[in-house]
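The following record pairs a protein chain with its ligand, adenosine-5'-diphosphate.
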Amino acid sequence: MMKLSEITKVYGNGALQVPVLHDINLTIEDGEFVAIMGPSGSGKSTLMNIIGFLDYATSGTYELNGEKIGKVKENKLARLRNEHIGFVFQQFFLLPRLNAQKNVESPLIYAGISKRERTERAKQMLEKVGLEDRMKHLPNQLSGGQKQRVAIARALVNQPSIILADEPTGALDSKTSQQIMQLLVQLNKEGKTVIIVTHEEEVAEYTNRIITLKDGRITDDRRKSL
Ligand code: ADP
Ligand code: MG
């Protein structure tokens, strides 16, 4: 469970302070599938970065599974990220010179896992996203949807309990977007907590809860009645 209490975020300092998040109170239970919506500049990515330990809140508290996370050192932040979070982004961020398998393996290299086990796990993850026949392809030999599948396989390779996807379908056509959302639905059914940012209503429809941000505040938080 994630619990954010009175979270604020201010970028910059002195006269150049930019307040971006105000008084965010939000609890997300394990296994939820959540969409964060709202206009450009409303603070969606900032909130995702705080939830995913890519950035700190300026004030407020963040509890993950009952553990309060304060201003910890970068190496602790990195450990929390690696242990709990898989990230997916609109622009995929695959390493262009590495094939699909090596891209998926890359987080495991830093974890000091043997080559043999890395290969085995990358293969399993690529099978899971339906790309077992594209292991040796380079990113530029793959379609947009296939690249996003590789990115999702990479996000899964550390076995995180939380998947954070910032506009995962933003660069994809509508049919491919649906396929990516179906994959995220499947991962959620398998028990992952999935949080996505999206601008598109039809993408948000796949989730069970829609949170709306406006000017750095939560203005709506709606669970789908099942
Ligand atoms: P969204 O994802 O909803 O479009 P962001 O969280 O990216 O919004 O940005 C919210 C606001 O914070 C914007 O006004 C943006 O310009 C500002 N912002 C984002 N990142 C930084 C930064 N590193 N330094 C200063 N301002 C930033
Ligand atoms: Mg954004």
